[in-house]
């Protein structure tokens, strides 16, 4: 299974999410995306977006880049 390593460098969460395959508009509230990410990869995490979230998403994007998937 795919599992992130959150010990690496931080990166922009939304940019990394898109590279990993999440589709999310620039002007949309990020909270639902963060909640979905955490449900799968960091279910114990709470609160606002943090460095560990950014590191974990950056790791996933670096190892499993799929780009943004077109919707519609």
Mind summarizing the main beta sheet? none
Run of helices and strands:
HHH
Shape: globular
The averaged pLDDT comes out at 91
Q: Outline the low-pLDDT stretches.
A: none
> What is the number of helical segments per DSSP (H or I, 4+ residues)?
3
Terminal-residue CA separation: 28 Å
Number of strands: 0
What structural category do the secondary elements indicate?
Answer: mainly alpha
Considering DSSP H and I runs of 4 or more, what fraction of the residues is helical?
A: 40-55%
Strand content: under 5%
- The Rg value, from CA coordinates, equals 11 Å
Describe this structure in words.
This protein is mainly α. The protein contains 3 helices and no strands. It has helices at residues 13-20, 31-41, 51-63. The chain is globular. The mean pLDDT is 91.
List the helices and strands and how they pair.
Elements: H1 13-20, H2 31-41, H3 51-63
């Amino acid at each position: 299974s795919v599992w992130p390593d959150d010990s690496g460098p931080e990166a922009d969460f939304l940019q990394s999410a898109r590279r990993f395959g999440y589709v999310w508009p620039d002007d949309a509230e990020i909270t639902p995306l963060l909640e979905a990410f955490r449900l799968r990869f960091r279910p114990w995490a709470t609160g606002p977006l943090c460095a560990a979230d950014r590191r974990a998403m950056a790791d996933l994007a670096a190892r499993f880049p799929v780009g943004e998937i077109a919707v519609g």
